[in-house]
Amino acid sequence: MSIDTETAAKVAKLARIRVEEDALPALAQEFNTILGFIEQLNEVDVDGIEPMTSVTPMRLPRRVDEVNDGDQQAKVLSNAPDAREGFFAVPKVVE
Asked: How the protein assembles, per its UniProt entry (predicted)?
């Protein structure tokens, strides 16, 4: 498959990318180069090869999912402009 300048202009318009008229031939060539790489990948025989999600076959370490308060109440409230009784204090907005 080959991309011409008209198709490159259409793709640029669909992608909402402004491309000057004199840059369209170079863009079409870049698209053709990308399509050439894809054609090379299609030539690789991958029958019987299991897809992988990672380069290394190890599982990520996971922590135990426990509900807790984070034990950082004082640290969080130290950033508040006003805190009372362990909570953020805000101005009253409803009378």
From this structure: Heterotrimer of A, B and C subunits.
